[in-house]
Amino acid sequence: MTYLQIEGTNHLSGSVTINGAKNAALPLIVSSILAKNEVKISNVPEVEDIKTLISLLKNLGAKADLNHHEALLNTTTLNQTTAKYDIVRKMRASILTLGPLLSRFRHCEVSLPGGCAIGQRPIDLHLLALEKMGANIQIKQGYVVASGTLKGAEVLFDKITVTGSENIIMAAALASGKTRLLNVAKEPEVVQLCEVLREAGLDIKGIGSDELEIYGTNGECLEFKEFAVIPDRIEAGTYLCAGAIVNSKISVCKVNPSHLSAVLAKLEQMGFGIIVENDSITLLPAKEIKPVEILTSEYPGFPTDMQAQFMALALRANGTSIIDERLFENRFMHVSELLRMGADIKLNGHIATITGGKELNAADVMATDLRASSALILAALAAKGTSRVHRIYHLDRGYENLEEKFKALGANITRLEE
Ligand code: EPZ
C-alpha cells in the first residue's frame, strides 16, 4: 500500500494550477448517454473516480477515452444497460447512470451504491422522483431494476440532493412532456450540467435557481457541443487551506472565485487576506489566526466538502472554533486521526468544538474518505516532525498530482510504498 510521508513546515510559497471539477465531470461524462453524437469534454481531471466512470461507460458498450484531460465519448454504440456492482461499489456516483439510461432505453439495472465512510448515502429521493415520472422501480439482489417510458412530472425534492438533482435532470431530458423540479440543488456542478444540456438543444428554464422547467425531447437524443469542465472549487479551497495552515502566502490559478464565496469569507473571518484576480486567488498570511464558526449547508452556503480541511485549519486558530456538520451523519472520521496528532477536538453529535493553539505532533494517520484525507495532509504540514498518511487511495479518487502540487508550494512530501 502506498502512503505519503510529509515533513512539518512553517512556510509554503508559490502557486498551483487547479484541475477541472471531479463533481462536475462525473455527471457531464454520464450525460453523454443522452447524446446522438460524439461528445468532447476538456479540462477533465485525471483522477480515479473519473477513470472508473470511463471504464463503466466502456462496460456498457460505449466508446470512452480520457487522454491529457480530454474525454472523448460516443454512446451511440452503447449496447447494454446494467451498471454492475463491482464498478458501482468503487464509485457511488455511478448511480448517475440510472436517469439517463432509463430515459433513453426505457430499462436499466444499476447496482445500489451502498453507503460510504461519511454516511448511509441513501438514494430514495432519486427513486421517488423517477417513480413520479412513471418509472417502475424494483430492488432486486442489490440492484435498482428500473423500467418504463418516462413522462414529464412535477417533482419536489424533500431534501436538496446534488446527484439526485443531476439524475432527474438527465432523466427529464429525454422524457415526454414538461418536468418541473422544485428544491433543486444549485451547486455550480449542477448548473454546468444544465448549461451543457441547454447548449445541446434541451429546452430548460430556471438554470441556477432551485426551480427548473425541462421540456423533454420524447426520446430524441441531443446534439452536444464541445465544452470544458468548470474548475474544482474544493481542490482550490483545499490548497488555500494548505497555505493558511502554515500562515503563508500562496496562490491558486485557473479557478472561478465566484464558486468559493463562502470559503473565502471564512478565511477572511479567520484573519487571512484574500486577493481575487480574474481566475486566480492569492491568500495572504494572517497577523493572528482567529477561531471560526462554520455550519455546512447546500450551495451557496459553506460546502461540507471543505469541512474537514477547515477543522484542520481551526487547530491553528487562537481560540475555540465550532463546526456544525449538517449534511452527513458521519463526516467526522478525520477527528480521531487529528486527535492522534495532539488536536483538541470535542464531538457532540454533529457539532465539533476545536480548541486551537495546541502544538501538533507528527504521527502515522489513516485516511478514511476523500476530503478527510486532505485534512490529514494539511495537519501534517503544520505538525512538528515527519507524518505518514496511509490509505491514500482515498486521495487519488479526487486530487490529481497531489504531491507534485504540494511540492510546487515548497512542501516536503513523498509518496512511498509500505
Ligand atoms: C454530492 O454527493 C457530492 N458528490 C459530494 O461530494 C458532496 O459532499 C455532496 O453532494 C453534498 O454537497 C458528487 O457530486 C459526486 P447529496 P451526493 O445527495 O449527491 C441526503 C466528495 O467528496 N439524501 O446532495 O451523494 C444525503 O444522505 C463528495 O467529492 C437523501 O436522504 O450528496 C445527505 O444527507 C463526498 N436521499 C444529503 O441528502 C437521497 O436520495 C445531501 O446528499 C439523496 C440524498
From TrEMBL:
UDP-N-acetyl-alpha-D-glucosamine binds at R92, R121, P122, I123, D124, L125, D305, L327. One of its GO terms (molecular function) is UDP-N-acetylglucosamine 1-carboxyvinyltransferase activity. Belongs to the EPSP synthase family. MurA subfamily. This is UDP-N-acetylglucosamine 1-carboxyvinyltransferase. It is an enzyme of class 2 (transferase). Its EC number is 2.5.1.7. Keywords: Cell cycle, Cell division, Cell shape, Cell wall biogenesis/degradation, Cytoplasm, Peptidoglycan synthesis, Pyruvate, Transferase. The modification 2-(S-cysteinyl)pyruvic acid O-phosphothioketal is found at C116. SUPFAM superfamilies: EPT/RTPC-like. GO terms for biological process: cell division; cell wall organization; peptidoglycan biosynthetic process; regulation of cell shape; UDP-N-acetylgalactosamine biosynthetic process. The keyword Repressor does not apply.
